[in-house]
Design a protein that fits this description.
This protein has eight helices and ten strands. With 258 residues, it is α/β, with parallel strands linked by helices. The strands form three sheets. A five-stranded parallel sheet has the order 2-1-3-6-7, sandwiched between helices. Strands 8-10-9 form a three-stranded antiparallel sheet, sandwiched between helices. A hairpin with a 2-residue loop joins strand 4 and strand 5.
């Protein structure tokens, strides 16, 4: 399924906060958004009863409800719609609890900028649709926690569409892992798995949380060559100081293959 635009429902009782979201989105005029504001939970739930909402930006503290109860009520009303919670700096722990309960992401008031908001909204919709399209089939690599080939292809299609709509640069980084078979043969599978986990962690440290990182090779035959691939907006945020290769050191102690 390809996303042409994101129809977003903003549920927030404070007009100033609602204006912040609109102004942040206006910083990225090429992004395709349709934003509708509901001033309070009751009005928001009423709009969710109809069809046509792709994403909800939800303020957790509203006149009718506060905290996790706001998220739970909204999710129960529209379980098929992804939700990003929108809360204050002092409520970061509350927002994380909402994410653990099923929210796709959280935003902190006063720290919202256009590009990061756009990425968060796009990725929330993509992740939610991927979860529905896989229908119980995993899209994650169990060893590294990164996306697998199936997840990368499904989400990559959406990223390409967003890049085309917004006339933005999407960079594809492909990395082969050499020497993995030698590690497995000389030191055992556990050390080979440790090397892959270290490489995955180095990639996470190098790229943004909103970037798409996947392990696309070597899952079925762990002794064969392994490959990782990343789709990122523009350039990586910084270069990792940790080597991405079989010589990566494990943090837990000395590594026999180092």
């Amino acid at each position: 399924m390809v996303i042409s635009s994101i129809r977003t429902l903003l549920i927030e009782d404070n007009p100033a906060d609602a204006r912040v979201i609109r102004e942040a989105l206006a910083e990225v005029p090429e992004a395709a958004f349709e934003v509708e504001w509901a001033e309070g939970l009751a009005k928001g739930l009423e709009k969710l009863e109809g069809e046509g909402v792709d994403l909800v930006l939800l303020g957790l503290h509203l006149p009718e409800s506060r905290g996790l109860a706001t998220f739970a009520t909204t999710q129960a009303c529209a379980p098929d719609v992804p939700i990003i919670v929108w809360t204050g700096l002092d409520d970061r722990e509350l927002a994380l609890k909402a994410v653990r309960d099923g929210a796709q992401d959280y935003l902190v008031k006063g720290q919202v900028e256009g590009p990061s908001l756009v990425r968060s909204m796009q990725n929330a919709v993509m992740r939610h649709r991927l979860q529905r399209e896989t229908d119980g089939h995993t899209s994650k690599d169990e060893l590294t926690g990164l996306y697998n080939r199936q997840g990368f292809l499904a989400l990559g299609e959406q990223l390409l569409r967003f890049a085309d709509l917004g006339k933005r640069t999407l960079t594809l980084v492909h990395a082969d892992v050499d020497g993995l078979e030698k590690i497995n043969q000389a030191f055992g599978r556990e050390e080979g798995d440790a090397a892959l986990r270290d490489i995955a962690e180095a990639l996470r440290a190098t790229f943004r949380e909103s970037d798409l990182i996947a392990r696309v090779g070597g899952m079925n035959s762990p002794g064969c060559a392994c490959a990782f691939v990343t789709a990122t907006w523009g350039k990586p945020r910084h270069c990792s100081s940790r080597p991405c290769g079989p010589a990566t050191a494990r943090e837990s102690g000395p590594t026999p293959w180092r």
